[in-house]
UniProtKB/TrEMBL annotation:
Cross-referenced Pfam families: HHH_5, RuvA_C, RuvA_N
Helix-hairpin-helix DNA-binding motif class domain ranges (all copies): 72-91, 107-126
Protein name: Holliday junction branch migration complex subunit RuvA
Stated role: The RuvA-RuvB-RuvC complex processes Holliday junction (HJ) DNA during genetic recombination and DNA repair, while the RuvA-RuvB complex plays an important role in the rescue of blocked DNA replication forks via replication fork reversal (RFR). RuvA specifically binds to HJ cruciform DNA, conferring on it an open structure. The RuvB hexamer acts as an ATP-dependent pump, pulling dsDNA into and through the RuvAB complex. HJ branch migration allows RuvC to scan DNA until it finds its consensus sequence, where it cleaves and resolves the cruciform DNA.
Native source species: Jeotgalibacillus marinus
Region entry Domain III, spans: 152-203
Superkingdom of origin organism: Bacteria
Subunit structure: Homotetramer. Forms an RuvA(8)-RuvB(12)-Holliday junction (HJ) complex. HJ DNA is sandwiched between 2 RuvA tetramers; dsDNA enters through RuvA and exits via RuvB. An RuvB hexamer assembles on each DNA strand where it exits the tetramer. Each RuvB hexamer is contacted by two RuvA subunits (via domain III) on 2 adjacent RuvB subunits; this complex drives branch migration. In the full resolvosome a probable DNA-RuvA(4)-RuvB(12)-RuvC(2) complex forms which resolves the HJ.
């Protein structure tokens, strides 16, 4: 297994690049080879994944380790092969794909080539909650709720959200109204009343 290859970008095509390493040209299939356009003729480090089949040995290349790791995870999903995983990575940034999986956003996932409703649900079933261990160093804030992070700067809003939760509203419901509440500058009681009004509109 090759972890990465260092060499000069000798060729860029629509599907792959060729990296010249001490006179050997390595063909590396990439999600988007043209990201290497500015690197042509330069020495680079490309992270690699070796895929072996009975009749074929293929090297896949990735400019970043997180793309490689996500690619490997996608291969574990039933119905997704190397070409499908490449298409997903080519169509969306890794953090967008991971967020969609964590948020169970199958509508977003079905926008990728070759991903239908069934495959999107399978991705969520197989990968939700299992990606944070793979890419924590690359996306340290990816699994944090940005709106909830903002609310910690507003203790009155935080108190109001806790009160609404105590009234029986779920985190998913709170996330829907929190952005609207965050725009306001109110007392705790006013936040609670405003939150209840917004909740009623959602029903």
């Amino acid at each position: 297994m090759y972890e990465y290859i260092k060499g000069e970008v000798a060729l860029i095509s629509t599907e792959y690049i060729v990296v010249d390493h001490h006179g050997l040209g390595y063909q590396l299939f990439m999600p988007n080879p043209f990201v290497m356009t500015s690197k042509q003729g330069q020495h680079v480090q490309v992270f690699t994944y070796q895929h072996v089949r009975e009749d074929q040995l293929t090297l896949f290349g990735f400019p970043t380790m997180e793309e490689k790791l996500l690619f490997m995870k996608l291969l574990n999903v039933s119905g997704i092969g190397p070409k499908g995983a490449l298409a997903i990575l080519a169509s969306g940034a890794p953090e967008q794909v991971i967020q969609a999986i964590e948020n169970e956003n199958d509508t977003f996932l079905t926008k990728f080539p070759g991903v239908g409703k069934k495959t999107a649900r399978q991705m969520i079933l197989d990968l939700k909650g299992k990606l944070q261990d793979v890419v924590p160093d690359f996306f340290p804030n990816l699994f944090a709720d940005p709106d909830r992070a903002k609310s910690t700067d507003n203790p009155k809003l935080e108190e109001a959200l806790l009160a609404l939760k105590a009234l029986g509203y779920s985190d998913r419901e709170l996330k829907k109204v929190e952005p609207s509440l965050f725009k306001e500058s109110l007392t705790t009681d006013q936040y609670i009343k405003k939150g209840l009004q917004l909740m009623l509109k959602l029903q």
